[in-house]
Amino acid sequence: MDTQQITAPPCAPSLVPGNATPSSGVIHINIRHAAGFTVIGNHLAQHRGLSLTAIGLAAHIQSLPAGAKIGIKRLAERFPESETRIAAALRELEAHGYLHRSRVRLPDGRIVTRTVSYNQPSTDASTTAAPQPRTRRTKPAAPRPTPQPPPGEPAAEPLPASSEAPPPPAPQRTPEPHPAPVFVPAPTTPRALPPLLPQPRELTPELHRAASALLADLRRHAPQLVLSENDIHTLTPGIATWLERDAHPDTIRHTLTNDLPVPLKHPAKLLRHRITTLLPPPLPGAKGLVPARPGIIVIPLQNCDGCDRAFRSRHPGHCGDCRTELHTAA
């Protein structure tokens, strides 16, 4: 009767290592990966300040090989999230130190976005120490056995050890880390100053009153052209120059209100541009309207002293018939 009889099967092994099996919550079944895996820290997987989209996007970026394209449009084609959500997740990763993006100019002149991913937040790849090269360990040489003299001969005296110590090994140089590329913006040309507002030769009170009234009346014809008193005071000399050059008020009003952009953000700047660039030239005088005829000399008319007929001559006197009669009579 001392033989133990087993009548019941043993309990099934617990899925959780240890004796305690959780009654609720997640139960992990972990299988060791031999290839094709990425190590993600719990500081990222359990981050309390990042959204699920940002955590998943960081894990995806860290699993990609170096040189992979991770632009917003490329990620939007890969995942169902929109470009707006992906852009917001990238900004979250930048704010918490998992990602850094910078604009870099290449030697050929192109400007590209360089993205650096960190598996630990707030680290800099340029200050990380480079891995030391492994040196191959050599086994110490076994001591050579001392030869024994033949029987009957005295033993040879051992040679004195060399007093010079072996030279110390040369220190290994640590490769200097390459500094991160610095983005240098291209030189920009200075902006040209806007042309000066035209000024009349004499700004009389009547001219000033007519120009300011025309500017204040523009909003009746174009509701977008609502000007302040300061704008009207600034633009009045330009309209006075138009009126001084005999431009009709209807012509000025049509020029300033025609084909306005939609939406109109800065009415005063638009009017200043049109008043300056579309200024008409002064009207020419009566003499300027006579066409010049080079090479034609006009001989004036003269009245004949004998018959009082008109004839062309540079000097007064007799006409051709009277001169013939005078020569015949002589």
The strand line-up of the biggest sheet is 1-2
Low-pLDDT stretches are: 124-135
In quaternary terms, these chains amount to single chain
Helix content: 25-40%
Work out the radius of gyration. 51 Å
What would you say this structure looks like, in words?
By secondary structure, this protein is mainly alpha-helical. Among the domains are: 42-117, Arc Repressor Mutant, subunit A (Orthogonal Bundle), CATH 1.10.10; 205-277, no CATH class; 298-330, no CATH class. Helix content is 31%, strand content 6%. It has helices at residues 42-45, 52-63, 72-78, 83-95, 205-216, 218-221, 229-244, 249-257, 267-277, 286-289, 320-329, and strands at 99-105, 111-117, 301-303, 310-312. The strands form 2 sheets. It has a two-stranded antiparallel ribbon with strand order 1-2. Strands 3-4 form a two-stranded antiparallel ribbon. A hairpin with a 6-residue loop joins β3 (301-303) and β4 (310-312). α7 (229-244) packs parallel to α9. It is elongated and about 170 Å long.
